[in-house]
Each structure stands twice: as C-alpha cells, then as structure tokens.
Amino acid sequence: MVSINKNIMRTVLLASYILLIALIVSALSGIFSYLNTGADRSKMLHTEIAKVEQYLPKMTWESLSNEGRPMDKENLNALQNDYLDAWYVKQIAYKTNKTAGIKDYYTEHARENLFEYIELNKKQNITIEATTLKHNPKLEFFSEDGQLAVLTDNNVKEYKRVFKNDSLVYETTEISTYKVVFLLEDGFWRIRHMVKEDEKDNTDIPQTSPLNNFKIKGINYYPQATPWKMFGDDFSADTINKDFKIIKNAGLNSIRIFIQYEDFGKADIDNNKISKLLTTLDIAEANNLKVVLTLFDFYGNYTVMDWTLNQRHAEKIVLAVKNHKALLAYDIKNEPNLDFESRGKDNVIAWLENMIVLVKSIDEKHPITIGWSNTESATILKDKVDFISFHYYEDLEVLNDEIKHLKNLIPNKPIVMQEFGLSSYRGLWKPFGSTEEDQANYHKKIQEIITNQNLQFMSWTLYDFVEIPKEVVGRLPWKKRVQGNFGFINQNGETKPAFKYINTIE
Amino acid sequence: MNFKSIYILLLSIWLASPLVFAQKNTSVKLLTTKTEFTVGSHIVLKFKNVNNNTPLLYCSNSYGTTLVSGTINNLNLEYTLPENIAKKIGVINWKILDKNYPTSGKLYIKPKAEVATMETYIGPPSIEAGGTDYSMLVVIPTDSLDNPVPTNTPVKVKNQFLNSEEVDNVFTKNLIAFKNIYSKKQDGRILVSSEALGTNSKEFTINAMPAVPTRFKISYSSPHNYADGNQITNFTTSVIKDRFNNVVSDGTYVDFFIKNAEGNILKTSGLTLNGVANSKIIHPDHADNWSVKAYINGMAESNIITLNYKQVVKDFNVAFTNKNRTISVGPLQSFMNQMIPDGLHVKLYIYSNNQLVKILTKTTFNGYVYFNLKPAIYKNNNYNFKIETAGITKQFNKKLW
C-alpha cells in the first residue's frame, strides 16, 4: 500500500512539474514573441496615410511678406494642410464630443483647451456641428529653423449649429479673426496658441441678378440614349446638336440640363466632364438656346462636414461656365424638398442658402433658382433666389388656383413651372394609364393655363427613354416604364401627338 | 366703416408697433456693463429679466463653443461663464437664445501682465563664424493660464560670447518675440537667455562653427625614397583655417589625390585634428613620379607637391627546373642588396599558342617566389611565360614535359 501511494504521489508530482514547466515555457515564449514584434516600419513616418480630401474651405492667402525666414511653397502647403486638418478634427471632436485625432494637431498644452470644452459639452449633452467656409490667412512669422510659424486668419466664415439634448437650439454664421501659433512637432504643424481676436456678424448679403426680361419657354433635356448620364462615355456632340435643332425649331428658347455631383468628380472635378459641359453650352449657343444648369443632381448628403467639398465642386463648375453666353441661370438643386424628411428640413435649407451665397460670390451676373418639386415648398428661400421654380405633376384642375396662391405669396419674382408633363404609358405595368391622346390633351390644356397665367415654363421632357437609372425612380419596372414615357418624341424618334403643344400657341 | 376710421386705426397700429418692439427688447436687458475682463476672472453676465424664464446663453471663444444655463438671482438673470472660457484670452461672443428677445454681445478677455513660463525656441543650433550667419531665438512668454502675453511686452534677449555680454530689448508681436543672434569673427559657443517681466528662461547654446576652410599647404615624409612597396609615405597638411583665422572643426575631411607617372589616380584621405590632417600611403613597388594635391571637397585645395621613387630591384634571375614545371624567381634584392622584404608581388602570365591561359600572382618570401605548374592542369606542350615584378618584365618560351 505504502509503495502504491508513493508511486501515485510521485506521478502527481512529476505531472505537476511538467505542467508548471510547460506553462512557464509558454509564458516566456509569449513574452519573447511579443517583444520581437516591433512597430510596423512603414508606419513610423505617417507616410501610409492616404490623403483623402475631407475639408476644403476656400483658402485665400494674403501675399507672403512675413517676418523671419522667407516661406516656400512646400512648407506653406504643409502648414495649410495641417491647419485645415486641425480645424477638421476640432469640428469632428465637437460634433461627437470625442477626442480622437486632436493630439496630432494641437500641442500638449493647447489640446487641454479642447479637452475641457469636450468635457463641458459632454456633461450637458451639447454638440456642435460646424464648418468653416472661408479662410483668409496671412503668414506673419516663420522662424529661421523652420519649426515655428504664426499666422493671422482673417475673417474666417464659420457656420455653426448648436444642439442641446439632440435638438437644434441655435444656428449661426460668424466672421472671426484668429491668430494662431504653430510648432512643427513629429512632422505635424501643431497649433500651440489660438486667439480669437475679432468677431463680427456675417454680412454676406448676395446681390440679386434678375432674369432681365428673358421669358423662359423651354424644356428639360437629356439625350434619348443617355438619360441621367449625359456627360458619360457616350457623349455625342452630333446627337445634342440634332436635338437642340429640334427644340429650337419647335419655337422654344431654353433647355434645362443636369450636373451629377459624383459623376463630375465631387470636390475634385473631372476636367473631361467640364469640357463636355462646355461643348454642350457651345452647341446651345450655336442654336440660340439658353441653358438652365441644375447643379448637385443625385446628391443627397447635406451634412455640415460635407459643405466645403460641395462648395469646391460648385466653385469649379461655376468658374468654368460663368462667362458662357449660353448660360441663363443656375438651379442649385433639383427637388431638394424631397430630402427634407430624411436629411432634416433646416439642414437642407441651410445648405441651399449657403450654396446660393457661394455661387453668387463667384458669379454675380446669372440668376439663381431652386427647382422645388411642388408649389408649397416654392416659397422657401424666396428672398434668396432670383426667380421661383416649381415642378407640377398634379391635377391640372387646381393648377390655376395654386399659381394664383403662389403669385400672392411671391408677387415680385418671376415664376417658372420648371417641370411638368404626363407619361403616355399604358401597358402591362399600368393597364389604365394615359394614352398619347391624353398626353396631348394634357399639354394643350396646360399651355392654355401657361398663357393665361403668363407663366414661364420648361416641360418634361423631349424624349421617351428606354433605360432609366435606378437612382431616378428606383428599380420597380412599373415606375421605370412610366418614367420612360414622358417625352414628346417616342422611342422610335417619331413625334407624339403632344408635340404640337410643346410650345405656347401664339 | 368709413375711410377716416380705417385710417385712424391703421395709423394707431403703426404708431404702437415700435412701442411693442421697444418693450420686447427691454424684456431681457444686459446689466453687466463691463466688456473687458482680465483673463481668469470670475465672469458673470447679469440681465434684467421680466419674463422669469431662463433661456440658454450661447457663447464661443478662441477654442470652442458652448451653451450656459442661467440662474435667477434677485430677479436678475445670471450667467456664470465656465472657467475654461474665462481663462483664455481673446473675444467671447455671446447671445441669449430666446427668439423673442435676442440679445447679444462681445466680451474681451485681456491677457495678464505677468509671465509664468518662457517658452523658448532657438535654431539653427550651430551657425558659421564670421558675422554673417545667425541663429534665431523665438520666445513665447505665457502667463500662468497658458495665455500669450499682451503685444509689446518687452523681452530682454541676453547673450554672452568670449568677453562680450550683450542685452537687447525686443517686444512681443503676433504673440511671440524673436531676435536674430549673429556670430562674431571667432568660433566658439554663444550662450543665450531671455527675460520678460522678471521671469528668466534657461540657458541656451549656439555653436558658432569655423567658416569654410581656405587654401592650405601639404608636405610629406617617408623613411626613404625607394620604391620598395613596403615603407609608408605620410602626407600632412598645414593647420587649415577659415578666412577669420579660426582653425577648422576637427574631423574636416581632407582628400589627397595622387597622380602617378602613368596618369592613374590614387587616393588617400584623413580627418583634421586641431586643423591638421594626416594620411598615409604605401610606397610603390617600382620607380614612379607622384604629384599630390589635397582637397576639402567643394571648399578648399592645397598646393601640389611631387615625389620621386627610385627603382630598388635592378634585375632578377629566373630558373626552370623539374621538367620546367618549377619556376623560381629570385633572389630579389633591394637597394643595399638586402633581400627584398616579404610581400613583393610577382606575376606569372602563362600563354599557350599566344592565348593567355592563366595569371598566377604570388608574393616573395625571403627574397624568392616559386611557381609550381601541375601536369594535370598544364599539359605537356610549349608555353610562353611572362614574369613581371617591380616594374621589370621577362619572357621565356619553354616546353613542359
């Protein structure tokens, strides 16, 4: 018995030793392998960060006449990038009340100021959505060793929305002047001191630019083969020229075309698209047609953080077309009221208002409008636009009253019925739809109302389309088919009965 | 109603309307008349409040934006600005968030006239002596709340170099103060510090390094001038100085370029110590003429010196033995007929049918070199042999068997 017990004892002890040693070895090997995995070498220099433009407010540098070392382009560019990134991380931090990213762009002492704010706002559930739309920096000082810089950022245009307990309590646009001290640390230009030196109210009141007696008698235009992607690979100047001749011969004087936000490259505009746009305008000019340019088609994100990118997009397009003789007006956005529910009404309106200010700041000559989808919304921003546009696909019986009502509300601005029409689709997906006769009657009737009310108009649209992109009405075939049959000319290129009423009968 | 009564009604409405407005505006009335505060003070905005409601106060300063809740105290509406806003200089803009009584204003938070820390940056840390190069001292004096001090605060910039001690007054502008510190003719260390409102920075050092070197001379020394391939010739520069007579920094790199009689370039180099660079090179193994010039790359050069090396090995014997497969070269004798020191190169070129088959290189040992040609490699045949050493060549035609 004794010897068996002893053997059991020995076995247990031996097993426990082996287990213990195995554990120690595995722990040591764990530590050893941990110590052998160093930082990834490629990440040491921050070179792996792919630069995506997130924040592009308008930067207008005053000419360089700083004290200290003369500034060069490369350093100034690095300074500007990091300065804007500093603004960007600050905006994100105050929007989310989180501190991510701040330490890269503010020095150890300066970041405390932001952390205190975040703590304060977090406690009271205050969040701030803000962006800066314009900066006018002047470099004041650049140190001899290139490690310290001071700039004065004059008249920074800051737009802010202040939320308490997730509800908007205040919206403001401020013009402030800041003095900023930067230190170059770890390859980042970090903010050391920031002092707001002045603050004044926003005085950007855009000028009005009236339509100047031009009476719009027009049509919404897409080429038959490429609706909603007019400036794609299948762009054909010949087709457009042919179509513009049809429109001109029908006695119309203007067209409405669309610039798709993403298709044109968002903030980084594709020059190829611009040249196609200019070609289109040239053809319009040659055919004596005026063009209403609708911006931001298929754009639906109005968040404040997106504004600077949107504005750079609009800026480049407006700069490209503003001196073109064929240009009649800018339509800032097609049917923005449809986004009220999903994106917040005040958000969308604030976006539109600021976009009007921006477009007017670049082109003060051409009038601006917004293509509201109904008459109720048409009064929004009525004082900011130069003429009122609304779309009408409702019952013609009440159109007269609607227009009268609208004219009462807005007596002093021209009113354009910018989209209207009737689909002549009757078939499998909609057996009781309107016929081509119905469509002709519709246009006859609406032209009478237009004449009586002395309205300006742009009908929808020249052609019946075969392919409707899903972004327009979704994927459902009964919607697509209907959408495809609003034209005055059918898919075979023959004019439909409604073509007779494409223009006002004199 | 007749026309007159309508007119009177309209007129009275028109007259009354500004009264209504005026009354509205006075509902929340700012009682705090002070708009300038010293940074760090306890700031309370007081309003006369009729309605007894407490709207939020929006306020924004240099670093951010927040909302402040009001309290009612003795029928007054009071807003205490958070500490983190009151302790930063600059403009605070505020607004009462009440649509009916919008009241807004600005507060100016002024810096304190005190300096708690002298944040000092100096650069570049080393500059060139001579009085044209300079380093820049940048000071950001800050108060105890980490705010920059007011514009035009005097900052004393002090520096010491050799026997001179200087104090300059500069003034803060754009939140900083700066001063360029120029080097003097001599090299050495410049000690710099600064002071503002009684607070001193720590000590900083600028190294004034000697300027670019100027022309210098070189010389050589060697045990003898025989081309024995064994002794060493030593090149030395004069003391290299800049144009202000400062000895160049230790470690200045000097290249000696040697051009031999055939036009080939040999190179040796050295680093200066106390302005003098040394460099060594082994003697050639055959008579040669060297011309030597030294350069400090891109900055300075020396004069040219010439060296003549005399031939030591006048002639040598070659003996073929062991079916001509053992070739002994020697004795190789030096200038006093002593055996040449071990290590002289001897080259054997082997040709078969005028084709170079092999070059064998050996070094002398006790004045002799032996080549053994193995039958496995060198078949029985006629061969031409060329033996080359110390610049002398001898040729033979032998049959291996």
Automatic annotation (TrEMBL), chain A:
A GO term (biological process) for this protein?
A: carbohydrate metabolic process
The residue ranges crossing the membrane are: 12-35
Write one Pfam family the protein is assigned to: Glyco_hydro_2_C
MF-aspect GO terms:
hydrolase activity, hydrolyzing O-glycosyl compounds
The UniProt keyword set, sorted, is: Glycosidase, Hydrolase, Membrane, Transmembrane, Transmembrane helix
Q: Which residues are in the Glycoside hydrolase family 2 catalytic domain? A: 313-437
Q: Does the keyword Hydrolase apply?
A: yes
Name of the featured protein: Glycosyl hydrolase family 5
Automatic annotation (TrEMBL), chain B:
Which keywords does the record carry? Answer: Signal
Say which domain of life the source belongs to: Bacteria
Q: Where is the signal peptide?
A: 1-22
> Has keyword Signal?
yes
What is this protein's record name?
Uncharacterized protein
Give the organism the record lists: Neotamlana sargassicola
